[in-house]
Amino acid sequence: YAMMKFARGVLKTRHIDHCARLCHSSTVAGLANIFGSGAMTNSIPDIAESKCVFVIGSNTFENHPLIGRQIMKAKANGAKVVYVDPRKTPTGKQADLFIQFYSGTDVCLLNGMMQEIIRNGWENKEFIEKRCNGFEDLKSEVMKDDYSLENVSSVTGVPVDDIKTAAEWFAKSGATAILYSMGITQHTTGVDNVKSVGNIQMLTGNLGRPGTGVNALRGQNNVQGACDMGCLPVVFTGYQKVIDEAAHKKFADAWKFPDGIAEGKNGYEVTVMMNVLTDNPGELKCMYIMGENPMISDPDLNHVEEALKNLEFLVVQDIFMNETGELADVILPSCCYAEKDGTQTNTERRVQMWRKAQDPPGEAKLDWQIIADIAKAMGYGEQFAWNSAEEIFNEMAALTPSYAGMDYTRLNRPEALHWPCPTKDHPGTPILHGEKFGMPDGKGLMTAIPFKYQQERPDAEYPILLTTGRCIWHWHTGTMTRRSENLEREEPTGWIEMHPEDAKALGVKNDEMVRAISRRGEITIKARITDTIKKGVMFIP
Fold first, then answer.
1. What is the pLDDT of residues 118-156, one digit of tens each?
2. 103, 290, 457, 480: most buried by Cβ count inside 10 Å?
3. Is 279 exposed, middle or buried (0-12, 13-18, 19+ CB in 10 A)?
């Protein structure tokens, strides 16, 4: 919130963004379009109440182990677990049905399952009638011959019987939860994938109750919170649009910057910022990066390096020196989570308290204090005259309807609160869409989604499909985890996983160093030969 206010009020810039838009922008856009809200619909403990857990595009056991625990609780209570992935990960090994498909064929698979559900009359007719629009549009698409079991099987690489079984378990369980993460969002068809997930849940009535829902698993502890705080090029806090004149006036009036705030136009996404820096040098002159390491995490690193070197001034605020910091003009040492008080909002929209456990080292300061000090030096001390994280939270909550009923007294309890929590006597909302959706008429929007292949497909020059993900031992860029001797010992380097038949065709042996070349660059990396990955697909963490 402090960073967003500083950007719009002090720097007068509308170009503010963060990593959540890269991982879950498809979720926000897709679910907002069909449900009226782009967030995870249910709570984490809810998953244990499911009768069928359908996991697609998420290696939950390695990437969200505590949520994986809820899947195991559901399974212990008799739930069926269906896992859809090109790799048989630790999550897949616990599944009752493992569906090994080709990455990028999600919509085809889901449309095929919906055809099977409708053909057998398993759809939830009452839910569709009372709670949804667009059923005939959806039906006209999914009942096409393209989505017959045989056609879907040939496109996805999944046996017909497995598609049948998945559809029956899904529709007839009585409470099916879908869990997904970046495996379905980080595609050129990511929004289509998300809408398809919403379609099948509306078709079967699996929304608004415990053990159901569309559960988009966020990648980091406060990624949801950073979105909620308006660290995006198109919204203020609580998804109030910057192009909405009333919202723009509301924030300008509340903040009282004597010279106004950034104009009410959408700004650049971080990927666009990088393109502008290389394609139109001079339009953007300065960049302020807090808690992010784009020199490792952004796509096409050679391009990112060229972009950052075109800046006149680069400021990096972080807890450790990193690859992006090496290019910075100024480094601002900040505090880690254990060195400050405050709140974070997790994947299930639960706003939780942080409590300081130790003092920060050296000259490190609280992030908001650093920002406030710079604002003061630039002549805006009055707008940043905060004395505590609590004061900042209260200011934010007063401007954000979904947080308006929260304060530190209410949050200082084990169960915390889920937004939306609009008033002081509101209990919070662990489950969204219980009675109605967030759309103007309260109904969900079923949408006809034709299957489209991803923009880049294997060809003669690049015949292998690359998929990426995490491993349990390291976190994203490794900026923090590579400093842990124990974690570093578990997985000191990356690797490329390949099916034995692909390895044989290429003459590659296990643990051999190979060169992996994409259209954008290359890497020398150790080969790991395993039959847990689909033939024709390779994986790099």
1. 999 999 999 999 999 999 999 999 999 999 999 999 999
2. 103
3. exposed
pLDDT tens profile 72-120: 999 999 999 999 999 999 999 999 999 999 989 999 999 999 999 999 9
The CATH class, in words, for 465-540 is: mainly beta
Name 344's bridge partners. Answer: 352
Q: Is 517 exposed, middle or buried (0-12, 13-18, 19+ CB in 10 A)?
A: exposed
Beta strands 522-529; 495-498: pairing state: parallel
Cα–Cα distance measured from residue 70 to residue 85, given in angstroms and rounded to the nearest whole number: 19
CATH 2.40.40.20 domain residues, the chain: 465-540
Q: Which fold has domain 2-20+221-418?
A: Rossmann fold (3.40.50)
Instruction: Give the span between the Cα atoms of 47 and 223, in whole angstroms.
Output: 21
Alpha-carbon distance of 50 to 71, in angstroms, equals: 8
Q: For the chain, what percentages of helix, strand and coil (3-state, to nearest 5) are there?
A: 40, 15, 45
User: In the chain, where does the domain assigned CATH 3.40.228.10 lie?
Assistant: 41-216
Summarised one tens digit per residue, pLDDT across range 361-420 is 999 999 999 999 999 999 999 999 999 999 999 999 999 999 999 999 999 988 889 999
- Give 55-117 as a DSSP string: EES--HHHHSHHHHHHHHHHHHTT-EEEEE-SB--HHHHT-SEEE---TT-HHHHHHHHHHHH
Torsion of CA 262, 17, 396, 352, to 10 degrees: 180
pLDDT of residue 218: 86
Quote the CA–CA distance of 110 and 420 in Å, as a whole number: 30
Name the pTM for this structure: 0.90
- For the four alpha carbons of 159, 83, 216 and 211, in that order, the dihedral sign comes to positive
Residue 20: what pLDDT? 78
Residue 149: closest CA among 106, 115, 123: 115
Using CB atoms within 10 Å of the CB of residue 475, give its burial: 0 to 12 exposed, 13 to 18 middle, 19+ buried.
middle
User: Which residues neighbour 253 within 8 Å (Cβ) at sequence distance 6 or greater?
Assistant: none
* Statement: residue 476 has pLDDT above 80: no
* Domain 41-216 class in CATH: alpha beta
Beta bridge partners, 540, equal 468
State the burial class of residue 486 (Cβ atoms within 10 Å of its Cβ: 0-12, 13-18, 19+): exposed
